[in-house]
């Protein structure tokens, strides 16, 4: 599908420009990758989730607006965090935020299919543990390569090269002389123009007119740094695939082998020859100095054991010329000297593990002519070090290119690998949520709802202490009940089940049917009597509500305080009539259920949460509303308790009986 960024709901020109900074913004939006979208400059995670939601809405032609009231929106937030809590990765937590309640069947079905698959697959705990080390892939921060540059004579090629290789310097040159000038400052110069082919230039100058098509060869660092930066994630994603038995998008062994060849800093690991050259170059000076000690110690020992006889004339000539000790040394101690120097040479060769050519040069660092103390020839040592370094760099570059070539081929599949692992975390979170809250997949049809053994995950008691509630309503109903009986909790349950069902998520019940609605209107209890203005605006809200009410679920908690008691029963009765006529599904919780019913022009259902009695002053409540039952109120129960408790004076008992009769 061709996605125009500006067409996505909520994406203006500025955001579209920010999104274009991403590698492939359309693909990120298509696959709902909130983490990738949030990587665009100035786009927060919350915004990224809304943008992705916008794309989903657009695909399903969804006008949105399911959560029609603040309380409905609040319940969505709480329901969502119940699921995101089980996300191991940051990615999954963000991705789950793209699941929103929708009134469009195709969207809900799509999400529910995902949830169903997730629950079927179940959770592999070992894989889930490995997910802790998987992160959305990051782009390594600016890689700069300083030992290589590109050169061209052409202005267009110059700007194309600058775009293609932000890691390298690109220089404009006039001729071969400029090239060789550049080659002095860089260890490699890549000339981009055909015309330089065959021109002899000093230094390492390569002519590569097709360089722009071979980024991995020209800048192997790019792909290497990508893999180095994401190495832990890739390795963990590999473990996730293995543990969960997922079908990987690439050969896992191949990826693991390639990663094992890569150091954390993007250099090549596990190459013995490269390590040997690097160590030899680094240690050469120290080892050469040790070698001097070896030779000098030997000579000293040899001298200590030896009496040197000097003929008188020699002594005279020594004194006269102040020199010639060397000749004396070679004559008297020639063998010992040769042995000492040989030991020094072998020390260097063996300590640095030098190869034939290198060893020859190293040996020449210690001359045959006897001197004391024995000293290395610094020039020879310097040249040897330069040779070792050059060899090391050549080998490193070659290995980097080889490894980069292998890894470049793996890069798209590696991204898929990590993405698949992260998506698995989304599924695991849903499956864990379903398991933790004993969920089932709901159906969406008809009017009203039917919930069996539903348990609200939003209660102030631990979930395993929540009593299951059965409740079904067809059309419009009133819910009565004792104080603290669980009326509000029942509305919450219906709301959270409806919201989760329209998100495509499983719901905390043994079975659940909710109406397929486009909007949820949930009004929380109003606190205190409303002033005239607020009363008016509430009435207007309810007038608006009746339009298209057959596509709405309306849940209202204790509306009676909108105005004085006698009047509110009449007003609520009128609202119920309108909702009934327009085919809405609705539950109104009220302490005035009896009065409202009397004022209602149709036979409104009144259900009740019943108290079974008082036990030690505490209500014993049957949490599931009883159908067609106006529940007794708390004061009535208290009077009854007093009446039953008074078996003494008949006069006292008669008092409570009189009160009871009033109910
Ligand atoms: N299904 C349930 N399982 C366990 N405890 C529950 C359940 N429903 C409600 N409760 C407990 O009862 C308390 C009161 O519930 P709730 O506020 O829903 O009652 P209410 O009938 O709306 O009260 P009020 O008449 O004061 O508005 C809850 O805070 C919770 O502790």
Automatic annotation (TrEMBL):
Pfam families: HHH_5, MutS_V. ATP binds at residues 481-488. Its cofactor is a divalent metal cation. Gene3D superfamilies: 5' to 3' exonuclease, C-terminal subdomain, P-loop containing nucleotide triphosphate hydrolases. Keywords: ATP-binding, DNA-binding, Hydrolase, Nucleotide-binding. GO terms for molecular function: ATP binding; DNA binding; hydrolase activity. It comes from the Archaea. Residues 474-661 form the DNA mismatch repair proteins mutS family domain. Belongs to the DNA mismatch repair MutS family. Archaeal Muts2 subfamily. HAMAP family: MutS2_archaea (MF_00971). Has ATPase and non-specific DNA-binding activities. This is DNA-binding protein MutS2. It comes from Halospeciosus flavus. The lineage of its organism: Archaea, Methanobacteriati, Methanobacteriota, Stenosarchaea group, Halobacteria. The gene is mutS2.
